């Protein structure tokens, strides 16, 4: 019998700047090739997607600048914290992603990393296009208006 807590994904790191800096069109869930010490470090919550990005290399997609801190109890096999890591996607998904990148000038942005309900590390990537400064200002304006509207409605109901 599995309880509700086990069904949910356990997020390790979320790229909060991604939605601020990019218009995200499509999202994909990808596996990632990790070493044992990297998995243990991620289970302790020591991963950072802040400056990471993904790019195509030889028909495969690799994530770069994804920082996973050293796992201290590991003695012999230590990993390099920001080494490139290969993403595991189906060929059809890779084709769609690469087509969007080449034709429409999009980019691949890592959105979050988490452990799914089976305990496997997954990365959510998004196909995105960069926002202009005026788009960012408009997003801030609409978010502030939503907060004020909720505050007014709450005050009116009380």
Question: What would you note in describing this structure?
Answer:
The chain has about 160 residues and is of the alpha+beta class. It has a single domain (about 10-130), classed as Small Protein B, Chain: A. About 35% of the residues lie in helices and about 35% in strands. The strands form 2 sheets. Strands 1-8-9-2-7-5-4 form a 7-stranded antiparallel β-sheet. It has a two-stranded antiparallel sheet with strand order 3-6. Strand 8 and strand 9 form a beta hairpin.
Describe the secondary structure blueprint for this structure.
Elements: H1 4-7, E1 10-14, H2 17-21, E2 22-32, H3 36-43, E3 47-48, E4 53-57, E5 60-64, E6 67-68, E7 85-88, H4 91-104, E8 107-115, E9 121-130, H5 133-157
Antiparallel strand pairs: 1-8, 2-7, 2-9, 3-6, 4-5, 5-7, 8-9
Q: What's the short version?
A:
This protein has helices spanning 4-7, 17-21, 36-43, 91-104, 133-157; strands at 10-14, 22-32, 47-48, 53-57, 60-64, 67-68, 85-88, 107-115, 121-130.
Features:
alpha+beta; Small Protein B, Chain: A; seven-stranded antiparallel sheet; two-stranded antiparallel sheet; 9 strands; globular
């Amino acid at each position: 019998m599995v309880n509700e807590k086990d069904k949910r994904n356990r997020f390790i790191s979320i790229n909060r700047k991604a939605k601020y800096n990019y218009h995200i069109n499509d999202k994909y869930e990808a596996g990632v090739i990790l070493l044992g010490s990297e998995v243990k470090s991620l289970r302790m919550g020591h991963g950072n997607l802040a400056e990471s990005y993904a790019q195509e290399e030889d028909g495969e997609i690799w994530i770069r600048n994804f920082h996973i801190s050293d796992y201290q109890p590991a003695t012999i096999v230590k990993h390099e914290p920001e080494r490139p890591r290969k993403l595991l996607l189906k060929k059809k998904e890779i084709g769609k992603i690469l087509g969007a990148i080449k034709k429409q000038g999009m980019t691949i942005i890592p959105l979050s990393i988490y452990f799914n309900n089976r305990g496997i590390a997954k990365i959510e990537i998004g196909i995105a296009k960069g926002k202009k400064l005026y788009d960012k200002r408009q997003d801030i304006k609409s978010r502030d208006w939503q907060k004020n509207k909720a505050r007014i409605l709450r005050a009116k109901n009380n």
